[in-house]
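Notebook entry, structure prediction.
Reason for the run: the old model in the group folder had no record of what sequence produced it. Starting over properly, with the input documented here first.
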Amino acid sequence: MLLATDLDGTFLAGEPDNRSKLYQLITAHPEIDLVFVTGRGLESVIPLLSDPTIPQPDYIICDVGCTVVHGDSQQGLHPLQGEIDELWPGEQIIEDTLAPFDGLQRQEVPQERRVSYFCESDSVTDDMRTRVEALSCEVLFSAGKYLDILPKGVNKGSTLSRLVDHLGVDPETVLVAGDTLNDLSMYQQGFKGVCVGASEEALLEATEHQARVYHAGAAGCGGILEAFEQFGFLGHAGIEAEIPDAMNSGKSDLVIVYHRLPYEEVVEDGKLIRRRPRSPNGIIPTLLSFFADGKAGSWVAWSIDDPELGPFQTYTEVDTSRYEKLVAARVPLSKEDVEIFYKRFSKEAFWPTLHTFWERATFRDDHWQVFLKVNRRFAERAATEAAENAVVWIHDYNLWMVPAFLRELRPDVTIAFFHHTYFPSADVFNVLPWRREIIGSLLQCDHIGFHIPKQAENFVDVARGVTPLEVTQKSGCAPRFLTYGCAVGLDEMSTEIRVNDRRIGLGAHPVGLDLDRVKNALADTDVQARMKTLREDLRDIRLILSVERLDFTKGILEKLHAYERMLSEHPELETKVTLMMVCVPAAKGMTIYEELLSQIEQTVGRINGQFAQVGWTPVQFFFRALPFEELVAYYTMADVMWITPLRDGLNLVAKEYIATQGLTQGRGALVLSEFAGAAAELRGAILANPHHPQDLADTCYYALAMSSSEARSRLSEAFETVCRYDIAYWGQEFIDTVEQRRAGKLKNIVPMGKTAA
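New structure, fully documented this time:
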């Protein structure tokens, strides 16, 4: 079967329930060839292709029949397109010919091989028609206001008929659908057709006596569904037998969808053991806290399905003593799936691009298919767990496509998404081959959170290049965030956008710090002993501390080069300062960082070889993860914390240092990259440009030479921010914002299994 349908007023119209039914029906039947036949230009059709709720067309006939392309590539379908091109005299000739006629207003919409105007009916004169015909073109006037000048003999119907012949499709298996007079040519080809409910009266009159044209009662997609039954396209079973049963709702009011389980899994003696997580940043404990009051919930995360460990267990308890009604709903993945989905594709394609290192990215379509498969599994599990009208909170770029699949499965739920990673500008993000699918998926969310306003605004710019949207709400960024004081500052951000009939909330929610964790570490006797030892070891040496994971985004090499420059320019620092660099290894199997590690080690060796003296090592390099408690001891002793990533979504290490110094009444200075998200909120930090070697060296030297009073003043300002906007504030602010959107949505929502009146 081939369904050739107009868009506006037809395939994109009708009751939401009928649209959903028709779209699911087409998706469930890959043997149905779907053809969009529209008066829109191709540029105006492309945004629809990023909407995951709309079936993707096999072919697109647009520009009222003047353009015909493949649905997947949007490349011209030849020889059909070439034959149409030969008939077109050119836009300039048409404009010059119609210039003497009054009452014509050019339509400022994308259009090719046609010229379109707005006008009244009396503007379309016999003289105009004569002049147009002399150019081997013809006039099409519809809906009392649309005037199209087309190549002679070219219209929706003629191009569709030639497409059917080209594909070798049996004309008896074709159904055409439309609602205005410019669809008439499709019905004149002899195909079975439907004029959907609320069609233009002129179209109904023109097709009134055509036996193969059905006039439906329901508008839009509802009318097409009527025609399916009227003409028996689905056999005797009928439409209802073809529609999949609605998915039953689960029992969880809040579903967390995260790439990590809320506990750690380790294999000991051939058995899978669960133990309490050692979360490095407090995010997992904060998310768990939402279930401490007995709220029914599910935590959806992946786990390796290893047959050697026995049958896979989907549901496990988390901690019944603390979270009575929380279960972990595990998504089974093979080791190969995890290797591709997380360690290779996410880190080799998405991670470099998000951090503006697109030249390092590797894009593979087979890996993208694995990514889609895994994301669908997450969505299916979340859909099974969620209670009716529940909140589903999805985390980070590894799960970008979950909203698309979830919205299809559970249109009732409120979908929230938090983007933990940096979100780049449009010119960077658009490098991704699957940008339309990704943005289309995220636009299925009800609320999307980012760390800082700049990242939210970057998302809006990217989305604007994918689909028409309207910014419906904005808010000022001050005083919560810096505006013009750093590279990632912004004075105003979009807080709500509208895409078609959906409103999506946007928010800046920088993740905060777990202050109690720092306090507990400082109270630990082992930490206090370590602090005393460090104080004795350092004596009069000023300590510059750098802590980051091994990654090209962290600017480690740039920092080492700046340190080398600073020692060269300020020889008085020799034997007086040392750089302690803690570099945390990447996850096992991440081989993409091996070359970077080699370069770092060579640079450290060169600096130490050039400047070292007896009893003094300029750079102390630790390539291992240090326990948090030990790091806190170093935080207390560091005169300067040097955090200068080339790009970073936030950076919690900077906040850990500020908290430690503030709690111990220290006077340490934070030198922070102005390209880290934390730079937009940590007033008091000394901001540096990590791409400028001299600035990097100068700001570090400034921090070392700073007076005690200035250091304490800066620290006090940053410490106030860290204390006020802690991890609990982050979680509660985000969930409160989502609940507000959910409440607004529930005012208009239709209960599952029921139809709107």
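Summary: The radius of gyration is 31 Å.
The old model has been moved to the deprecated folder.
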